[in-house]
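Review this today:
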Amino acid sequence: MATLATYRADRPRQRWPRLARLAWSRLVVDLKQFFRIPEQVFFTFLLPVLFLVLFSAVFAGDITDDPGRELAFVQYFLPGIIALGVAASTFANLAMSVAIEQHEGLLKRLAGTPLPKSAFFLGRIASSITITVIQTAILLAIGVALFGVELPATPGRWLMFVYVLGISAALGSALGIAMTRAVPNAKAAAPIVQAPFLVLQFISGIFFQWESLPGWLQSVATVFPLRWMAQGFRYAFLPDWFGETEYGASWGWELPAAVLAGWLVLSFVLAIVFFRWDRGGDR
């Protein structure tokens, strides 16, 4: 006969497989909902591709430092577009969609179901990471096939690429959930989320070379993770000599890695503190 202690010891073993199944079910639902909205698919997948194609066509030359040290603009541009795509498919996507669900009462009804809150969050974050991986693969394929972009040359550069991709997707998802607290109603979701995100795109070394930005804009961008995401991806794709144009006149990959890890912890704390299932009382 099983004792009470044995039953309690078995409960965690039973809980985790159930949580994983529920999170997987939520992941499937979220992905179906995402791909059924053409506008969302366009802005998530096609907009970064359009940026890549258009900017690479307009700025078709090389970035030249000294004789013998030349870099195709698209080689510099692609890592920033990947960072932009990660932020858009995690932070912007979740901030807007979750905020709308909050104010329309969908999350309140969901909170009343047997679905654990942890399963909801795991499924949402997993769907964002899945979308991010698909989007990144598309950008890499187009960059290599159409523009001759060179992929990371060493296992260490690939390791940094995977690290930055994974940690950026996770912290972007958590920040998106935290950002919902700043959205007063469903109609305000898009402008409130997109306005600061658009500004960060232009000051984080995404569309322009980092060294060409004024010092005060560099200081502002350095506070936020998008700038470090872009530098981490550039480290993976660009030659060693190009690191002289980055923060501290060197690549210093340890700094972006550490800053992003710190932002990961902070973003999850912010998500826990600021997220609400029901925002009806705020109106």
Observations:
- The beta strands are 62-64, 70-72.
- The chain has a mean pLDDT of 82.
